[in-house]
Design brief:
Blueprint (H helix, E strand, L loop, with lengths): L1 E2 L3 E4 L9 H10 L3 E4 L12 H7 L4 E7 L11 E8 H9 L4 E4 L11 H4 L1 H4 L10 E9 L4 E5 L4 E8 L2 E6 L15 E7 L4 E4 L4 E6 L3 E8 L18 H17 L4 H23 L2
Parallel strand pairs: 1-11, 2-3
Antiparallel strand pairs: 3-12, 4-5, 4-6, 6-7, 7-14, 8-13, 9-12, 9-14, 10-11, 10-13
The chain binds 2-oxoglutaric acid.
The site of 2-oxoglutaric acid (AKG) has 11 residues, from strand 7, strand 9, strand 13 and strand 14.
């Protein structure tokens, strides 16, 4: 398996301000990058568990609760618990219990908005917010908690504020053979330290493991034209043109299924080949 070192950009050394122009250049490049030496994002001292308990004392949380540190969305080896007092949650996380916060909005249908939902925390940080931010999500995990491999359809900044977190990333090009062909898979494993910000381009598969008590905030933002996004609470709904294409594809499959198996096989293959040609053309532009 080919392992590639992820690029790190030291913001202070390079005198870079994170602004929308810089963000557009990252999106254009389409590669994961760690931004390090960011100002005022390392909360190791300010957000010790007892400080967090005080700052979040009025919060009731919707959390993931389970018995296995490897959370798996497909087998749902956890349950959701609502109205969980933040103090109980934080102390349980600190003692290593399987609890995980992926913050939700004020009401179930609201998008998470870290600044609005947790003002006592957000006022401590100098967290940048891209102009086209979709949602900002607070994530708190115990030591050794692993999050399943997945991709999101929005671009993302994952900001590490307390503790270390390992992140494994896979290029979307490897989607078809992530598990099968190690030779062709590109694997990028990295450790995020407090103050690091990882840019995860849309569609890059990622999974994480907290090395210790960990607090992160992730910011989903949009980079396709607005009209391509549907209503989406979690940042993982396919762009509308993809949903449209899927409907056409479904129609194509129904049409081809009228034919005898030999014809079906031949024409599925033939249409598959033309789809591959189309993507080659796109790549060479
Ligand atoms: C994301 O930012 O999309 C993640 O999946 C982060 C999960 C985590 O670090 O807890």
């Amino acid at each position: 398996m080919k392992s590639v070192r992820i690029r790190r950009i030291n913001l202070q050394q390079k005198q870079i301000n994170i602004n929308d122009e810089f963000i557009s250049s990252l999106v254009e490049e389409g590669q994961p990058v760690i931004l390090e030496n960011t100002e005022n994002l390392d909360m190791t001292e300010n957000w010790k568990v007892e400080n967090l308990c005080e700052k979040m004392k009025d919060c009731n949380l919707s959390i993931h609760k389970g018995g296995n540190l490897t959370l798996d969305f497909r087998t749902k080896n956890f349950e959701y618990a609502n109205k969980y007092p933040a103090g109980d949650f934080l102390r349980e996380v600190a003692s290593g219990k399987v609890r995980y916060l992926r913050s939700t909005g004020a009401r179930r249908k609201d998008l998470p908005d870290f600044e609005k939902d947790y003002p006592s925390l957000s006022s401590d940080l100098n967290l940048f917010k891209p102009e086209r931010t979709h949602s900002q999500i607070l994530r708190i995990s115990p030591k050794d908690l692993e999050i399943w491999l997945h991709y999101d359809t929005l671009d993302n900044f994952l900001t590490q504020t307390v503790g270390e977190k390992e992140v494994l990333l896979f290029n979307p090009k490897d989607a078809a053979n992530l598990y099968l062909d190690g030779d062709k898979s590109e694997c990028i494993g990295e450790v995020l330290k407090p103050g690091d910000v990882l840019f995860i381009p849309a569609l890059w598969f990622h999974c994480t493991k907290a090395n210790n008590f960990s607090v992160s905030i992730n910011t989903f933002f949009k980079s396709l034209p607005d009209k391509m996004y549907g209503k989406d609470l979690y940042g993982n709904r396919d762009p509308l043109p993809v949903e449209d294409a899927a409907k056409h594809l479904q129609k194509a499959i129904i049409a081809l299924k009228q034919l005898p198996p030999t014809y079906q096989h031949f024409y599925f293959h033939k249409l598959g080949i033309s789809a591959a040609c189309l993507s080659d053309n796109n790549n060479s532009k």
